[in-house]
Amino acid sequence: MRLTPCNVHFTAQPDRVVYISSALYKNLNLSGSKSVQLKLGKGRIPATVKRINKPGRHLYLTSGVRNAIRIPKAGAIYLKNEDGVVQLGPLIGVLSDGRGSSASPFGARTGFIKQLLKAGSKQFYIFAFTPKDINWQAETVLGYFLTENGTFTRKSVPLPDVVYNRLPSRKYDFSASTNLLRERFIRRKIPFFNWSFFNKSDIYRILERDQVAARYIPEYHVNPGREMILEMLERHQVVYYKPSAGSLGKGIYRLSMLPQRGFYARYRKNKSNALLRFTSFNSLYRMLHAKLGSSMRGYVVQQGIQLIEIDGCPIDFRFHMHKNGSNKWVVVGIGAKKAGRGSVTTHIKNGGSLLTPERALSRSFGDRHGEVLEKAKKTAILLAEAIERQHSHLLGEIGFDLGIDQSEKVWMFEANSKPGRSIFQHPSLRSEGRSSVEHILEHCLYLSKFRRREES
Fold it and tell me: At the top level of its lineage, which domain of life is listed (predicted)?
C-alpha cells in the first residue's frame, strides 16, 4: 500500500466521475482501471475513472461524487489504494460536548479544539463533534470544521477513521449512553482513544501488578476503614485521603499526626485553605465522616512523601505523555508545580505556581538537575508502558503527576487519561504545547493506517 499526497479539486458536473492526473494515476497503481471504489471515513461509493494530462498529482471530483461521499473540502490530502479501494483522508473526529455559543460551541475547550483543527486541517480532514451530532442510522456526523478565517462551519461527513475522545465530564464519560457510543464505534472497527477517565484505584492496581512499576507507587489502600487510616498515619505520619474518581484536587485531605501535638487535617474550603487540629484520631475521623458520609467508600488513603521544596513549599511535576507516529510513548512537556502556602495540592487554582522543571530541580540538585530529570523521564515512559500493557483499550495520551524526594527517588501520585493543558500556558512551555498537538495528530495518522511515506 502506497500513501500519496495530492490536491483535490471540485467540478460542477453531476455525474460520478473521478478525473485523475497521469502522475497520480501511476502513483496509485491503478493500471488501466476504468472505475474505482472511492472511500472517505466509513463512507464508500463506486465511481468512473478518467485520466487527464496535467502535471502533478491532482484529483478532480464531480459534484455527484462529492455529494455522494460528502467530501468536506478541496485542497491537499492523502490518498491510498488498498485492494482497489482509493481512500481519501484520513478523516479524524474529535469528540467533546457542546454547551457553548455558535462561536464557542465547546465552551472552555473551544480554544484547544480550534488549535487541533487548525493544525490538522493542513494535513487531513479533521472535525469536532458531540454525541448528539451522530446519525447512527445514516452513519454520518454533523461535524464542526474550521474555516480559513478561524470560524466554525457545520458539514455532514461519514463516520471518521479515528476518534480522539475529549469528553470532559467523568459523569458523562461513565454514563450508559457513552458506553453505548463507544461500543458502536468499536463494532464498526473505528479506533477510539482515549477510552475514558482513569480511576485512581484501578491505576494503582495495574501498576502494583508490574514488578518494576510497583516500586514507584506510594503505599495506598482503597476504601480504608478507620483502623487502616490510623495505621497509615502511625506508619507515615502524613497521608493523603482522596476520592478515587476525583480530579483538579477536589475533595483531597492531607492528614498528619505529630507526637505530643495531635492530629491535623488540611483541605480546601470555599476557595481557601483550611487547617484543623484534633486532640484525638477519633475526633478527626468523626469530622471526615460528617463531611463525606457514604462517599468515603469511594476514597483511597495514600502515603505522604517528603518532596523536594522551594521556600518551604513542596514541588511536584506534570509529565505530559503522548504516543508518537510510531506508536511509542514519549515525554512531550514537563511542568513543575509549586504548592501555594498552606495548600493541600500544587494545583494552580488552589494557589500553586508553575515553573520550568530545570528551575525547580536546580534548586535542590544543583548541576545534577539534568541527570535527575532524565531519570524521571525514563520512569514516566516505563509507567506509561506498564499501564498500557494492562489497559484493555487504546491510549494515546497520559498526564502523570510525579514527585521527586530528596534522595532522587521518583514517585507516581496520579495518572490522567485526559490531562489538562495548563502547563503549556507557561511562556517557556508553549512550544511543548504545539508539540503536544502535533503528537496527537501523528497518532491519529498512525491509528488510521495513513502512514506517511516518501514517494520515489
Answer: Bacteria
> What CATH number has the domain spanning 206-216+306-449?
3.30.470.20
Calpha distance 40→45 (Å, rounded)? 9
Instruction: Name the pLDDT band for 249 (thresholds 50, 70, 90).
Output: low
Candidates 93, 101, 99, 8; CA nearest to 59 is: 8
Phi, psi of 85, rounded to the nearest 5 degrees: -105, 115
Kindly tell me if the per-residue pLDDT of 29 is higher than 80: yes
**CATH code given to domain 3-89:** 2.40.40.20
Over residues 204-215, mean pLDDT: 92
Mean pLDDT of 43-47: 95
pLDDT at 340 over 80: no
φ, ψ of residue 436 in degrees (nearest 5):
-60, -45
Asked if the domains at 92-193 and 206-216+306-449 fall in one CATH topology, the answer is no
* Model pLDDT, residue 454: 40
Strand pairing report for 75-82 and 152-158: unpaired
Q: What angle do CA 292, 348, 232 make, to 5 degrees?
A: 45
Query: Could you state, in order of their start, the residue ranges of all structural domains in the chain?
Result: 3-89, 92-193, 206-216+306-449, 219-304
The answer to whether the CB of 304 falls within 8 A of the CB of 413 is: no
Q: Kindly report the CATH number that applies to the domain delimited by 92-193.
A: 3.40.50
Q: Poorest-confidence range of 16-20, 225-229, 312-316, 374-378?
A: 312-316
What are the distances in angstroms from CA 58 to CA 8, 269, 403? 6, 62, 53
